[in-house]
Amino acid sequence: MNLVLCVCLTLNFNVSADNKKASSVDPDEDEPHLEEAWPHLQLVYELLLKFILTLHLRHDVIVKHITNNFINSFLDLFDSEDPRERDYLKTILHRVYGKFMVLRPVIKQKIMDVLLKVVYTFNIETHNGLTELLEILSSITSGLTTPLKPEHITFFKRVLIPLHKVKTLATYNTQLQLCVKNYLEKSN
Fold first, then answer.
1. How many CB atoms are located within 10 Å of the residue 152 CB?
2. Integer distance in angstroms from the first to the last C-alpha of the chain?
3. What is the pTM (predicted TM-score) of this model?
4. CA-CA distance, 161 to 156, in Å (whole number)?
5. Burial of 122 (0-12, 13-18, 19+ CB in 10 A)
6. How far, CA to CA in Å, does 183 sit from each of 33, 49, 129, 153, 166?
7. How many angstroms separate the Cα of 157 from the Cα of each of 35, 90, 112?
């Protein structure tokens, strides 16, 4: 069973590495690039989701394979132009976050790193998966306890507020507003 999980995770990252177009793609004008290998990728994502949700594998076996490198590679996949892939990634990451509490700080840190890269690297300024990442963050922030911890306030100030300056704000503005709203509600 461990071997199947490793093969699934490895195949997942090797098949979809090329599914990103140039950052000059305008989401309002151009159709998204739909991955030709989607039927195969979908099977891999389904299998990964089943492994994460299964009750038949021990918790520690799955966590052993979901390392920092896995989270990094997984978040890199969010830059795919295929919306079907990003939707699966969002679902899987959300399930991992909900099921494995030990991975929560790593996931939040890696999402913050992706968002900081978009904010502070002027030649990137676009990321195909920003809306999905912000939807996950919105869900995370709605579950935060009050009063907010200092690291949550720092995240709000260092990441969410500067995201309003990015030129591509229109593509993810709704999701960003929801995140900010959730943070402001928790701060009162």
1. 19
2. 47
3. 0.79
4. 6
5. exposed
6. 34, 29, 21, 8, 20
7. 36, 24, 12
CB 80 within 8 A of CB 35: yes
**Measured distance CA(70)–CA(78) in Å, rounded:** 13
What the block records as the tokens of 55 is: 């009750």
Q: Quote helix, strand, coil % in the chain, to nearest 5.
A: 70, 0, 30
Query: Which token pair is 63?
Result: 């966590």
For the segment 36-94, what is each residue's pLDDT rounded down to a tens digit?
Answer: 888 889 999 999 999 888 888 888 888 888 888 899 999 999 999 899 999 999 999 99
Spatial CA neighbour of 44 closest among 76, 88, 79: 88
Strand locations in the chain, DSSP E? Answer: none
Which residue has 């920092």 as its token pair? 68
Number of neighbours of residue 74 by Cβ within 10 angstroms: 20
**Residues in Cβ contact with 182 at an 8 Å cutoff, skipping those fewer than 6 apart:** 138, 141, 142, 144
Contacts of 157 (CB under 8 A, 6+ apart): none
Query: What are the tokens at 123?
Result: 């030649």
